[in-house]
Amino acid sequence: MCGITATVGADDAVSRLLTGLENLEYRGYDSAGVAVANGSGVEVVKREGQVEELVDLLSSTSIDGSVGLGHTRWSTHGPPTNANAHPHTDCRGELAVVHNGIIENHAELRERLRAAGHTFTSDTDTEVVPHLVEEYLATGAGIETAFRRAVADLSGSYAIALIHEDEDAVYATRQGSPLVFGLADDTPGSSSDETYYLASDVPAFLEFTDSVVYLEDGDVVRVAPDGYDITDREGAPVERPVETVEWSSDDVEKGAFDHYMRKEIDEQPTAIAQAVRGRAADGRVAFESLPDGAFADVERVQFVACGTSYHAALYGAQLLRERGISARVFLASEYAITAPPADDGTLLVGVTQSGETADTLAALRRGRSEGLRTMAVTNVVGSTAARECDDVVFIRAGPEIGVAATKTFSSQVVTLALLAERILRDVAGSHSETAPELLDALSDLPSAVSATLTDSSAEAIADRYGDSDAYFFIGRGTAHPVALEGALKLKEISYEHAEGFPAGELKHGPLALVTANTPVFAVATGAHTEKLLGSIEEVSARGAPVIAVAPRSERAVAEAADDVLWVPDSHPELVGLLANVQLQLLSYHTATLLDRPVDKPRNLAKSVTVE
Protein backbone atom coordinates (compact mmCIF):
# COMPACT_ATOMS: atom_id res chain seq x y z
CA MET A 1 0.00 0.00 0.00
CA CYS A 2 1.20 3.56 0.63
CA GLY A 3 4.83 4.26 1.46
CA ILE A 4 5.93 6.42 4.38
CA THR A 5 9.40 7.79 4.91
CA ALA A 6 10.78 10.29 7.43
CA THR A 7 14.17 11.60 8.47
CA VAL A 8 15.51 13.54 11.44
CA GLY A 9 18.92 15.17 11.73
CA ALA A 10 20.08 15.17 8.10
CA ASP A 11 21.14 18.48 6.58
CA ASP A 12 19.76 17.32 3.23
CA ALA A 13 16.42 16.02 4.48
CA VAL A 14 14.61 16.54 1.17
CA SER A 15 17.10 14.54 -0.88
CA ARG A 16 16.97 11.69 1.63
CA LEU A 17 13.18 11.75 1.65
CA LEU A 18 13.15 11.58 -2.14
CA THR A 19 15.57 8.65 -2.07
CA GLY A 20 13.22 6.91 0.34
CA LEU A 21 10.20 7.61 -1.85
CA GLU A 22 11.95 6.32 -4.96
CA ASN A 23 12.84 3.14 -3.06
CA LEU A 24 9.24 2.77 -1.83
CA GLU A 25 7.41 3.58 -5.04
CA TYR A 26 6.49 -0.09 -5.42
CA ARG A 27 4.13 0.49 -2.45
CA GLY A 28 2.20 3.30 -4.14
CA TYR A 29 2.56 5.63 -7.09
CA ASP A 30 -0.70 7.56 -7.53
CA SER A 31 0.76 10.71 -5.95
CA ALA A 32 3.66 11.77 -3.75
CA GLY A 33 4.73 14.57 -1.45
CA VAL A 34 7.11 15.80 1.23
CA ALA A 35 6.85 18.09 4.25
CA VAL A 36 9.77 19.74 6.02
CA ALA A 37 9.95 21.62 9.34
CA ASN A 38 12.76 24.18 9.17
CA GLY A 39 12.31 26.54 12.10
CA SER A 40 10.06 28.93 10.23
CA GLY A 41 7.07 26.69 9.64
CA VAL A 42 6.13 23.52 7.85
CA GLU A 43 6.53 23.51 4.09
CA VAL A 44 4.61 20.98 2.00
CA VAL A 45 5.17 20.08 -1.65
CA LYS A 46 3.00 17.36 -3.17
CA ARG A 47 1.42 16.40 -6.46
CA GLU A 48 -0.52 13.78 -8.36
CA GLY A 49 1.62 11.33 -10.33
CA GLN A 50 4.80 9.39 -9.80
CA VAL A 51 7.75 10.29 -7.62
CA GLU A 52 9.79 11.49 -10.59
CA GLU A 53 7.19 14.21 -11.15
CA LEU A 54 7.59 15.33 -7.54
CA VAL A 55 11.37 15.40 -8.05
CA ASP A 56 10.91 17.67 -11.07
CA LEU A 57 8.65 19.97 -9.07
CA LEU A 58 11.10 20.19 -6.18
CA SER A 59 13.98 21.00 -8.52
CA SER A 60 12.42 24.41 -9.03
CA THR A 61 11.31 24.88 -5.43
CA SER A 62 13.39 26.08 -2.49
CA ILE A 63 12.60 23.86 0.45
CA ASP A 64 15.06 22.68 3.05
CA GLY A 65 15.32 21.54 6.65
CA SER A 66 16.62 18.71 8.81
CA VAL A 67 13.28 17.16 9.83
CA GLY A 68 10.81 15.89 7.26
CA LEU A 69 8.18 13.43 6.07
CA GLY A 70 7.56 11.83 2.69
CA HIS A 71 4.74 9.75 1.25
CA THR A 72 3.88 7.89 -1.93
CA ARG A 73 0.18 7.07 -2.20
CA TRP A 74 -1.93 4.13 -3.33
CA SER A 75 -5.45 5.53 -3.41
CA THR A 76 -8.17 4.18 -1.15
CA HIS A 77 -10.28 7.19 -0.12
CA GLY A 78 -10.54 9.67 -2.97
CA PRO A 79 -8.93 9.63 -6.43
CA PRO A 80 -5.27 10.48 -7.08
CA THR A 81 -5.26 14.29 -7.10
CA ASN A 82 -3.00 17.02 -5.78
CA ALA A 83 -5.47 17.68 -2.96
CA ASN A 84 -5.62 14.04 -1.90
CA ALA A 85 -1.84 13.58 -1.97
CA HIS A 86 -0.04 13.36 1.37
CA PRO A 87 1.22 15.01 3.57
CA HIS A 88 -1.94 16.57 4.99
CA THR A 89 -1.98 19.59 7.27
CA ASP A 90 -4.19 21.21 9.90
CA CYS A 91 -6.14 24.42 9.32
CA ARG A 92 -3.18 26.62 10.29
CA GLY A 93 -0.56 24.67 8.38
CA GLU A 94 1.49 24.26 11.56
CA LEU A 95 1.74 20.47 11.39
CA ALA A 96 1.83 17.79 8.71
CA VAL A 97 0.87 14.11 8.75
CA VAL A 98 1.44 11.08 6.52
CA HIS A 99 -0.55 7.87 6.91
CA ASN A 100 -0.73 4.33 5.59
CA GLY A 101 -3.81 2.19 6.23
CA ILE A 102 -7.51 2.92 6.63
CA ILE A 103 -9.14 4.96 9.39
CA GLU A 104 -12.49 3.25 9.62
CA ASN A 105 -14.25 5.93 11.69
CA HIS A 106 -13.04 8.86 9.59
CA ALA A 107 -16.56 9.94 8.56
CA GLU A 108 -17.69 10.26 12.15
CA LEU A 109 -14.50 12.13 13.11
CA ARG A 110 -14.79 14.44 10.10
CA GLU A 111 -18.36 15.37 11.06
CA ARG A 112 -17.27 16.08 14.64
CA LEU A 113 -14.34 18.24 13.53
CA ARG A 114 -16.38 20.17 10.98
CA ALA A 115 -18.88 20.99 13.72
CA ALA A 116 -15.94 22.37 15.69
CA GLY A 117 -15.01 24.68 12.82
CA HIS A 118 -12.35 22.70 10.95
CA THR A 119 -12.13 22.97 7.17
CA PHE A 120 -11.20 19.95 5.04
CA THR A 121 -9.58 20.16 1.63
CA SER A 122 -9.36 16.48 0.58
CA ASP A 123 -11.45 13.34 0.25
CA THR A 124 -9.03 11.23 2.31
CA ASP A 125 -9.57 9.50 5.62
CA THR A 126 -6.08 10.67 6.61
CA GLU A 127 -6.95 14.34 6.87
CA VAL A 128 -8.86 13.84 10.12
CA VAL A 129 -5.57 13.13 11.90
CA PRO A 130 -3.90 16.58 11.64
CA HIS A 131 -7.19 18.24 12.54
CA LEU A 132 -7.62 16.02 15.60
CA VAL A 133 -4.12 16.94 16.75
CA GLU A 134 -4.88 20.61 16.11
CA GLU A 135 -8.07 20.31 18.17
CA TYR A 136 -6.21 18.85 21.15
CA LEU A 137 -3.40 21.41 20.86
CA ALA A 138 -6.06 24.12 21.16
CA THR A 139 -6.97 22.77 24.62
CA GLY A 140 -3.43 23.50 25.82
CA ALA A 141 -1.99 19.99 25.37
CA GLY A 142 1.62 19.59 24.25
CA ILE A 143 2.46 18.09 20.87
CA GLU A 144 3.10 14.59 22.18
CA THR A 145 -0.03 14.55 24.33
CA ALA A 146 -2.14 15.89 21.47
CA PHE A 147 -0.72 13.23 19.15
CA ARG A 148 -1.49 10.44 21.63
CA ARG A 149 -5.03 11.70 22.22
CA ALA A 150 -5.68 11.95 18.48
CA VAL A 151 -4.43 8.41 17.88
CA ALA A 152 -6.67 7.15 20.70
CA ASP A 153 -9.67 8.44 18.73
CA LEU A 154 -8.85 6.34 15.67
CA SER A 155 -10.30 2.99 14.65
CA GLY A 156 -8.77 0.89 11.89
CA SER A 157 -5.27 0.13 10.68
CA TYR A 158 -2.59 2.74 10.36
CA ALA A 159 1.00 3.82 10.43
CA ILE A 160 1.20 7.57 11.08
CA ALA A 161 4.04 10.08 11.27
CA LEU A 162 3.76 13.76 12.25
CA ILE A 163 5.92 16.85 12.33
CA HIS A 164 5.15 20.26 13.90
CA GLU A 165 6.71 23.63 13.24
CA ASP A 166 7.59 24.14 16.92
CA GLU A 167 9.75 21.04 17.36
CA ASP A 168 12.64 19.34 15.55
CA ALA A 169 11.13 15.90 15.98
CA VAL A 170 8.96 13.28 14.33
CA TYR A 171 6.18 11.51 16.22
CA ALA A 172 4.99 8.18 14.85
CA THR A 173 2.90 5.14 15.73
CA ARG A 174 1.51 2.00 14.13
CA GLN A 175 -1.50 -0.27 14.43
CA GLY A 176 -1.81 -3.01 11.85
CA SER A 177 0.45 -1.33 9.27
CA PRO A 178 4.23 -1.72 9.14
CA LEU A 179 6.64 0.95 10.40
CA VAL A 180 10.39 0.50 10.74
CA PHE A 181 12.83 2.78 12.55
CA GLY A 182 16.38 3.19 11.21
CA LEU A 183 19.36 4.35 13.26
CA ALA A 184 22.41 6.03 11.82
CA ASP A 185 24.53 3.72 13.96
CA ASP A 186 23.84 0.88 16.41
CA THR A 187 24.26 3.00 19.54
CA PRO A 188 20.81 3.73 20.96
CA GLY A 189 20.65 6.78 23.16
CA SER A 190 23.92 8.23 21.86
CA SER A 191 24.68 11.60 23.42
CA SER A 192 25.71 13.08 20.08
CA ASP A 193 23.23 14.19 17.45
CA GLU A 194 22.54 11.49 14.88
CA THR A 195 20.45 10.93 11.75
CA TYR A 196 17.40 8.73 12.08
CA TYR A 197 14.82 7.35 9.68
CA LEU A 198 11.28 6.00 9.72
CA ALA A 199 9.70 4.10 6.85
CA SER A 200 7.09 1.57 5.83
CA ASP A 201 9.83 -0.78 4.69
CA VAL A 202 13.59 -1.15 5.10
CA PRO A 203 14.57 -0.43 1.46
CA ALA A 204 13.60 3.22 1.98
CA PHE A 205 16.76 3.94 3.97
CA LEU A 206 18.96 0.90 3.40
CA GLU A 207 21.69 2.88 1.65
CA PHE A 208 22.02 5.08 4.75
CA THR A 209 21.86 2.48 7.54
CA ASP A 210 21.34 -1.23 8.13
CA SER A 211 20.52 -0.83 11.85
CA VAL A 212 16.79 -1.07 12.41
CA VAL A 213 14.13 -1.33 15.09
CA TYR A 214 10.91 -3.07 14.07
CA LEU A 215 8.13 -1.15 15.80
CA GLU A 216 5.13 -3.09 17.05
CA ASP A 217 1.43 -2.28 17.24
CA GLY A 218 0.79 0.33 19.91
CA ASP A 219 4.34 1.68 19.94
CA VAL A 220 4.69 5.46 19.93
CA VAL A 221 8.12 6.82 18.98
CA ARG A 222 9.48 10.34 19.30
CA VAL A 223 12.61 10.89 17.23
CA ALA A 224 14.80 13.98 17.57
CA PRO A 225 18.40 14.74 16.55
CA ASP A 226 19.60 14.01 20.09
CA GLY A 227 17.90 10.62 20.44
CA TYR A 228 14.64 8.72 20.48
CA ASP A 229 12.09 7.28 22.89
CA ILE A 230 9.72 4.37 22.32
CA THR A 231 6.72 4.10 24.60
CA ASP A 232 3.37 2.34 24.66
CA ARG A 233 0.03 4.12 24.26
CA GLU A 234 0.00 4.98 27.97
CA GLY A 235 3.49 6.48 27.83
CA ALA A 236 5.40 3.67 29.56
CA PRO A 237 8.90 3.03 28.12
CA VAL A 238 9.20 0.05 25.74
CA GLU A 239 12.38 -1.83 24.86
CA ARG A 240 12.77 -2.84 21.23
CA PRO A 241 15.98 -4.51 20.02
CA VAL A 242 18.21 -2.98 17.38
CA GLU A 243 18.74 -5.49 14.57
CA THR A 244 21.06 -5.57 11.58
CA VAL A 245 19.50 -6.05 8.15
CA GLU A 246 21.30 -8.68 6.07
CA TRP A 247 20.34 -7.10 2.75
CA SER A 248 22.63 -4.59 1.07
CA SER A 249 21.64 -1.46 -0.85
CA ASP A 250 22.72 -3.24 -4.07
CA ASP A 251 19.95 -5.78 -3.46
CA VAL A 252 17.29 -3.11 -3.92
CA GLU A 253 18.72 -1.50 -7.07
CA LYS A 254 17.94 -2.47 -10.67
CA GLY A 255 21.56 -2.47 -11.79
CA ALA A 256 21.81 -3.19 -15.51
CA PHE A 257 18.21 -4.39 -15.81
CA ASP A 258 15.40 -2.34 -17.33
CA HIS A 259 12.93 -3.49 -14.69
CA TYR A 260 13.01 -4.87 -11.17
CA MET A 261 10.77 -7.70 -12.30
CA ARG A 262 13.31 -8.96 -14.82
CA LYS A 263 16.11 -8.63 -12.28
CA GLU A 264 14.11 -10.63 -9.75
CA ILE A 265 13.22 -13.33 -12.31
CA ASP A 266 16.94 -13.72 -12.94
CA GLU A 267 17.68 -13.83 -9.20
CA GLN A 268 15.66 -17.02 -8.74
CA PRO A 269 18.61 -19.43 -8.85
CA THR A 270 20.20 -17.55 -5.94
CA ALA A 271 16.90 -17.22 -4.07
CA ILE A 272 16.19 -20.95 -4.36
CA ALA A 273 19.69 -21.85 -3.22
CA GLN A 274 19.25 -19.62 -0.18
CA ALA A 275 15.90 -21.22 0.64
CA VAL A 276 17.46 -24.72 0.59
CA ARG A 277 20.84 -23.92 2.17
CA GLY A 278 21.39 -25.77 5.44
CA ARG A 279 17.93 -27.29 5.42
CA ALA A 280 18.51 -30.45 3.38
CA ALA A 281 21.53 -32.57 4.29
CA ASP A 282 22.26 -36.28 4.64
CA GLY A 283 18.82 -37.16 3.31
CA ARG A 284 17.03 -35.24 6.07
CA VAL A 285 15.15 -31.95 6.25
CA ALA A 286 15.80 -29.63 9.16
CA PHE A 287 14.76 -26.05 9.88
CA GLU A 288 16.88 -23.90 12.12
CA SER A 289 13.81 -22.60 13.97
CA LEU A 290 12.05 -25.94 14.50
CA PRO A 291 13.24 -28.66 16.92
CA ASP A 292 12.88 -32.34 16.14
CA GLY A 293 9.32 -33.52 16.65
CA ALA A 294 7.88 -30.03 16.26
CA PHE A 295 5.01 -31.38 14.13
CA ALA A 296 4.48 -34.71 15.86
CA ASP A 297 0.93 -33.82 16.91
CA VAL A 298 -0.13 -32.33 13.55
CA GLU A 299 -3.10 -34.14 11.99
CA ARG A 300 -4.00 -31.61 9.30
CA VAL A 301 -2.70 -28.41 7.80
CA GLN A 302 -4.71 -25.36 6.80
CA PHE A 303 -3.10 -22.67 4.63
CA VAL A 304 -4.25 -19.06 4.40
CA ALA A 305 -2.84 -16.71 1.78
CA CYS A 306 -3.64 -14.16 -0.94
CA GLY A 307 -2.64 -13.69 -4.57
CA THR A 308 0.64 -15.31 -5.60
CA SER A 309 1.14 -16.62 -2.06
CA TYR A 310 -2.22 -18.39 -2.36
CA HIS A 311 -0.95 -20.20 -5.46
CA ALA A 312 2.23 -21.18 -3.60
CA ALA A 313 0.05 -22.52 -0.77
CA LEU A 314 -1.98 -24.57 -3.28
CA TYR A 315 1.28 -26.07 -4.51
CA GLY A 316 2.40 -26.83 -0.94
CA ALA A 317 -0.94 -28.39 -0.01
CA GLN A 318 -0.73 -30.67 -3.05
CA LEU A 319 2.69 -31.88 -1.89
CA LEU A 320 1.35 -32.59 1.60
CA ARG A 321 -1.66 -34.51 0.31
CA GLU A 322 0.59 -36.63 -1.89
CA ARG A 323 2.38 -37.58 1.35
CA GLY A 324 -0.85 -38.56 3.07
CA ILE A 325 -1.16 -35.40 5.19
CA SER A 326 -4.57 -33.71 5.12
CA ALA A 327 -4.16 -30.17 3.75
CA ARG A 328 -6.55 -27.44 2.60
CA VAL A 329 -5.99 -23.93 1.31
CA PHE A 330 -8.23 -20.95 2.07
CA LEU A 331 -8.27 -17.45 0.70
CA ALA A 332 -7.27 -15.44 3.75
CA SER A 333 -9.97 -12.82 3.23
CA GLU A 334 -12.66 -15.52 3.41
CA TYR A 335 -11.08 -17.50 6.25
CA ALA A 336 -11.04 -14.38 8.43
CA ILE A 337 -14.84 -14.15 8.29
CA THR A 338 -15.90 -17.79 7.82
CA ALA A 339 -13.22 -20.01 9.35
CA PRO A 340 -13.96 -23.75 9.52
CA PRO A 341 -14.45 -25.31 12.95
CA ALA A 342 -11.24 -25.48 14.96
CA ASP A 343 -9.91 -29.01 15.54
CA ASP A 344 -7.12 -30.26 17.75
CA GLY A 345 -4.10 -31.19 15.70
CA THR A 346 -4.63 -28.43 13.12
CA LEU A 347 -1.64 -26.35 12.05
CA LEU A 348 -2.61 -23.02 10.48
CA VAL A 349 0.06 -21.75 8.06
CA GLY A 350 0.01 -18.20 6.73
CA VAL A 351 1.98 -17.80 3.52
CA THR A 352 2.84 -14.12 3.02
CA GLN A 353 5.79 -12.53 1.27
CA SER A 354 5.77 -9.33 3.32
CA GLY A 355 4.42 -10.73 6.57
CA GLU A 356 2.17 -7.65 6.63
CA THR A 357 -0.72 -8.68 4.34
CA ALA A 358 -3.80 -7.53 6.24
CA ASP A 359 -6.13 -10.34 5.14
CA THR A 360 -3.59 -13.02 6.00
CA LEU A 361 -2.87 -11.48 9.40
CA ALA A 362 -6.61 -11.33 10.11
CA ALA A 363 -6.97 -15.01 9.19
CA LEU A 364 -4.03 -16.02 11.38
CA ARG A 365 -5.44 -14.04 14.29
CA ARG A 366 -8.84 -15.65 13.78
CA GLY A 367 -7.28 -19.09 13.88
CA ARG A 368 -5.21 -18.29 16.93
CA SER A 369 -8.28 -16.99 18.75
CA GLU A 370 -9.83 -20.42 18.10
CA GLY A 371 -6.85 -22.11 19.73
CA LEU A 372 -5.00 -23.18 16.58
CA ARG A 373 -1.24 -23.32 16.39
CA THR A 374 -0.02 -20.80 13.82
CA MET A 375 3.03 -20.64 11.57
CA ALA A 376 4.23 -17.94 9.19
CA VAL A 377 6.06 -18.74 5.97
CA THR A 378 7.39 -15.31 5.07
CA ASN A 379 10.27 -13.36 3.60
CA VAL A 380 10.61 -10.54 6.09
CA VAL A 381 12.37 -10.83 9.44
CA GLY A 382 10.65 -8.62 12.01
CA SER A 383 7.34 -8.59 10.13
CA THR A 384 4.05 -8.76 12.01
CA ALA A 385 3.36 -12.34 10.91
CA ALA A 386 6.84 -13.43 12.02
CA ARG A 387 6.33 -11.87 15.44
CA GLU A 388 2.76 -12.97 16.09
CA CYS A 389 2.81 -16.61 14.96
CA ASP A 390 3.85 -19.50 17.18
CA ASP A 391 6.45 -20.57 14.60
CA VAL A 392 8.08 -18.94 11.60
CA VAL A 393 10.04 -20.20 8.61
CA PHE A 394 11.76 -17.63 6.40
CA ILE A 395 11.93 -18.16 2.65
CA ARG A 396 15.20 -16.14 2.35
CA ALA A 397 14.38 -14.68 -1.07
CA GLY A 398 15.94 -11.29 -0.38
CA PRO A 399 14.15 -8.02 -1.17
CA GLU A 400 11.56 -8.05 -3.94
CA ILE A 401 10.65 -4.64 -5.33
CA GLY A 402 8.57 -5.42 -8.43
CA VAL A 403 4.86 -5.42 -7.63
CA ALA A 404 4.37 -8.72 -9.45
CA ALA A 405 5.88 -11.44 -7.24
CA THR A 406 8.37 -13.71 -9.01
CA LYS A 407 11.31 -15.02 -7.02
CA THR A 408 9.24 -15.13 -3.84
CA PHE A 409 6.84 -17.64 -5.42
CA SER A 410 9.74 -19.96 -6.20
CA SER A 411 11.21 -19.54 -2.72
CA GLN A 412 7.83 -20.13 -1.09
CA VAL A 413 7.23 -23.35 -3.03
CA VAL A 414 10.73 -24.67 -2.33
CA THR A 415 10.31 -23.89 1.38
CA LEU A 416 6.90 -25.60 1.42
CA ALA A 417 8.34 -28.65 -0.33
CA LEU A 418 10.92 -28.95 2.44
CA LEU A 419 8.24 -28.31 5.04
CA ALA A 420 6.06 -31.09 3.61
CA GLU A 421 8.90 -33.58 4.04
CA ARG A 422 9.63 -32.32 7.54
CA ILE A 423 6.00 -32.57 8.67
CA LEU A 424 5.79 -36.10 7.27
CA ARG A 425 8.93 -37.15 9.12
CA ASP A 426 7.62 -35.84 12.45
CA VAL A 427 4.17 -37.38 11.94
CA ALA A 428 5.12 -40.73 10.37
CA GLY A 429 8.69 -41.17 11.61
CA SER A 430 10.38 -40.99 8.21
CA HIS A 431 10.55 -38.97 5.02
CA SER A 432 8.70 -40.05 1.88
CA GLU A 433 10.12 -42.79 -0.33
CA THR A 434 10.99 -40.21 -2.98
CA ALA A 435 12.67 -37.81 -0.55
CA PRO A 436 16.26 -38.61 -1.65
CA GLU A 437 15.39 -37.86 -5.27
CA LEU A 438 13.48 -34.72 -4.28
CA LEU A 439 16.31 -33.36 -2.15
CA ASP A 440 18.84 -34.05 -4.91
CA ALA A 441 16.57 -32.27 -7.38
CA LEU A 442 16.23 -29.30 -5.02
CA SER A 443 20.02 -29.02 -4.91
CA ASP A 444 20.10 -29.05 -8.72
CA LEU A 445 17.12 -26.70 -9.11
CA PRO A 446 19.13 -23.43 -9.23
CA SER A 447 21.12 -24.68 -12.22
CA ALA A 448 17.92 -25.93 -13.87
CA VAL A 449 16.35 -22.48 -13.45
CA SER A 450 19.48 -20.88 -14.90
CA ALA A 451 19.23 -23.17 -17.93
CA THR A 452 15.57 -22.25 -18.35
CA LEU A 453 16.42 -18.53 -18.27
CA THR A 454 19.22 -18.98 -20.79
CA ASP A 455 17.34 -21.12 -23.30
CA SER A 456 13.87 -19.55 -23.10
CA SER A 457 11.95 -18.75 -26.28
CA ALA A 458 9.25 -16.90 -24.30
CA GLU A 459 9.91 -13.60 -26.07
CA ALA A 460 9.21 -15.16 -29.47
CA ILE A 461 6.04 -16.81 -28.14
CA ALA A 462 4.90 -13.48 -26.65
CA ASP A 463 5.40 -11.82 -30.01
CA ARG A 464 3.65 -14.61 -31.92
CA TYR A 465 0.50 -14.56 -29.78
CA GLY A 466 0.54 -10.90 -28.81
CA ASP A 467 -2.72 -10.00 -30.58
CA SER A 468 -4.84 -12.70 -28.96
CA ASP A 469 -8.28 -12.05 -27.48
CA ALA A 470 -7.51 -13.93 -24.24
CA TYR A 471 -5.09 -16.46 -22.81
CA PHE A 472 -5.90 -19.71 -21.00
CA PHE A 473 -3.56 -21.70 -18.77
CA ILE A 474 -4.25 -25.30 -17.77
CA GLY A 475 -2.57 -27.95 -15.67
CA ARG A 476 -3.14 -30.89 -13.35
CA GLY A 477 -1.74 -31.66 -9.90
CA THR A 478 1.08 -29.24 -9.05
CA ALA A 479 0.70 -27.76 -12.55
CA HIS A 480 -2.71 -26.37 -11.58
CA PRO A 481 -1.38 -23.66 -9.21
CA VAL A 482 1.30 -22.89 -11.80
CA ALA A 483 -1.45 -22.34 -14.39
CA LEU A 484 -3.24 -20.02 -11.98
CA GLU A 485 -0.03 -18.13 -11.28
CA GLY A 486 0.83 -17.86 -14.97
CA ALA A 487 -2.55 -16.30 -15.68
CA LEU A 488 -2.22 -13.93 -12.73
CA LYS A 489 1.18 -12.70 -13.87
CA LEU A 490 -0.02 -12.05 -17.40
CA LYS A 491 -3.10 -10.10 -16.35
CA GLU A 492 -1.18 -8.18 -13.62
CA ILE A 493 1.47 -6.64 -15.81
CA SER A 494 0.15 -6.80 -19.39
CA TYR A 495 -3.54 -6.02 -18.66
CA GLU A 496 -4.50 -8.81 -21.07
CA HIS A 497 -7.34 -11.12 -20.13
CA ALA A 498 -5.97 -14.42 -18.82
CA GLU A 499 -7.48 -17.29 -16.85
CA GLY A 500 -6.06 -20.41 -15.24
CA PHE A 501 -7.99 -23.66 -14.81
CA PRO A 502 -7.55 -27.22 -13.65
CA ALA A 503 -7.23 -28.94 -17.01
CA GLY A 504 -10.19 -31.22 -16.34
CA GLU A 505 -12.52 -28.27 -15.75
CA LEU A 506 -12.28 -26.90 -19.28
CA LYS A 507 -15.13 -29.08 -20.47
CA HIS A 508 -17.36 -27.92 -17.60
CA GLY A 509 -17.81 -24.39 -18.90
CA PRO A 510 -14.64 -22.54 -19.95
CA LEU A 511 -14.47 -24.49 -23.22
CA ALA A 512 -17.28 -22.22 -24.45
CA LEU A 513 -14.76 -19.37 -24.57
CA VAL A 514 -12.11 -21.21 -26.56
CA THR A 515 -11.58 -19.89 -30.10
CA ALA A 516 -8.80 -19.77 -32.65
CA ASN A 517 -7.66 -16.53 -31.02
CA THR A 518 -7.40 -17.82 -27.44
CA PRO A 519 -4.07 -19.62 -27.06
CA VAL A 520 -3.98 -22.28 -24.36
CA PHE A 521 -0.80 -22.82 -22.35
CA ALA A 522 -0.69 -26.41 -21.13
CA VAL A 523 1.68 -27.03 -18.21
CA ALA A 524 3.08 -30.57 -18.14
CA THR A 525 5.10 -31.94 -15.21
CA GLY A 526 5.49 -35.60 -16.14
CA ALA A 527 2.51 -36.61 -14.00
CA HIS A 528 -1.07 -37.06 -15.31
CA THR A 529 0.20 -36.83 -18.90
CA GLU A 530 -2.57 -38.87 -20.53
CA LYS A 531 -5.31 -36.77 -18.96
CA LEU A 532 -3.54 -33.53 -19.91
CA LEU A 533 -3.30 -34.79 -23.50
CA GLY A 534 -7.07 -35.24 -23.48
CA SER A 535 -7.53 -31.60 -22.54
CA ILE A 536 -5.10 -30.50 -25.25
CA GLU A 537 -7.08 -32.46 -27.83
CA GLU A 538 -10.32 -30.81 -26.64
CA VAL A 539 -9.04 -27.28 -27.26
CA SER A 540 -7.19 -28.21 -30.44
CA ALA A 541 -10.44 -29.55 -31.88
CA ARG A 542 -11.94 -26.08 -31.36
CA GLY A 543 -9.09 -24.46 -33.30
CA ALA A 544 -7.21 -22.99 -30.34
CA PRO A 545 -3.42 -22.93 -30.57
CA VAL A 546 -1.72 -24.87 -27.79
CA ILE A 547 1.62 -23.94 -26.28
CA ALA A 548 3.04 -26.70 -24.11
CA VAL A 549 5.28 -25.79 -21.18
CA ALA A 550 7.02 -29.09 -20.64
CA PRO A 551 10.22 -30.99 -19.88
CA ARG A 552 11.98 -32.50 -22.88
CA SER A 553 10.96 -36.00 -21.80
CA GLU A 554 7.29 -35.14 -22.44
CA ARG A 555 7.46 -35.79 -26.19
CA ALA A 556 3.81 -36.73 -26.56
CA VAL A 557 2.68 -33.40 -25.10
CA ALA A 558 5.13 -31.51 -27.31
CA GLU A 559 3.91 -33.31 -30.42
CA ALA A 560 0.29 -32.46 -29.61
CA ALA A 561 1.09 -28.75 -29.22
CA ASP A 562 1.65 -26.00 -31.76
CA ASP A 563 4.59 -24.51 -29.85
CA VAL A 564 6.66 -25.52 -26.84
CA LEU A 565 8.36 -23.67 -24.01
CA TRP A 566 10.90 -26.26 -22.91
CA VAL A 567 12.16 -26.77 -19.37
CA PRO A 568 14.84 -29.18 -18.10
CA ASP A 569 13.79 -32.55 -16.78
CA SER A 570 13.58 -32.61 -13.00
CA HIS A 571 11.67 -34.27 -10.18
CA PRO A 572 7.96 -34.21 -11.17
CA GLU A 573 7.13 -32.23 -8.03
CA LEU A 574 9.54 -29.46 -9.07
CA VAL A 575 8.97 -29.25 -12.83
CA GLY A 576 6.12 -26.83 -12.14
CA LEU A 577 8.61 -24.31 -10.75
CA LEU A 578 10.62 -24.45 -13.97
CA ALA A 579 7.43 -24.05 -16.00
CA ASN A 580 6.55 -21.05 -13.86
CA VAL A 581 9.83 -19.35 -14.82
CA GLN A 582 8.87 -19.67 -18.49
CA LEU A 583 5.45 -18.19 -17.77
CA GLN A 584 7.02 -15.31 -15.85
CA LEU A 585 9.16 -14.55 -18.90
CA LEU A 586 6.12 -14.84 -21.16
CA SER A 587 4.28 -12.27 -19.05
CA TYR A 588 7.29 -9.99 -18.89
CA HIS A 589 7.88 -9.99 -22.63
CA THR A 590 4.17 -9.57 -23.40
CA ALA A 591 4.04 -6.52 -21.12
CA THR A 592 7.19 -4.96 -22.56
CA LEU A 593 5.96 -5.48 -26.13
CA LEU A 594 2.78 -3.63 -25.10
CA ASP A 595 4.86 -0.94 -23.37
CA ARG A 596 3.22 -1.51 -19.98
CA PRO A 597 4.75 -0.13 -16.73
CA VAL A 598 6.03 -3.55 -15.68
CA ASP A 599 7.14 -2.75 -12.13
CA LYS A 600 4.15 -0.55 -11.32
CA PRO A 601 1.00 -2.04 -12.84
CA ARG A 602 -2.07 0.15 -12.55
CA ASN A 603 -4.28 -0.14 -9.46
CA LEU A 604 -1.91 -2.60 -7.73
CA ALA A 605 0.55 -2.31 -4.86
CA LYS A 606 3.21 -4.63 -3.52
CA SER A 607 2.08 -5.06 0.05
CA VAL A 608 -1.67 -4.88 0.70
CA THR A 609 -1.90 -3.75 4.30
CA VAL A 610 -5.65 -3.03 4.39
CA GLU A 611 -8.53 -5.52 4.39
Write a concise synopsis of the structure shown.
34% of the residues lie in helices and 23% in strands. It has 18 helices and 26 strands. The longest helix has 22 residues, at 407-428.
Structure explained in plain terms:
With 611 residues, the protein is an alpha/beta fold. An eight-stranded antiparallel beta sheet has the order 3-2-4-1-10-9-11-14, with helices on one face. The chain has a six-stranded antiparallel beta sheet with strand order 5-6-7-8-12-13. It has a five-stranded parallel beta sheet with strand order 18-17-19-20-21, sandwiched between helices. Helix 4 (128-137) packs across helix 5 and helix 15 packs parallel to helix 18 (575-593). The longest helix has 22 residues, at 407-428. The radius of gyration is 25 Å and the shape is globular. The model is unreliable at 186-192 (pLDDT under 50).
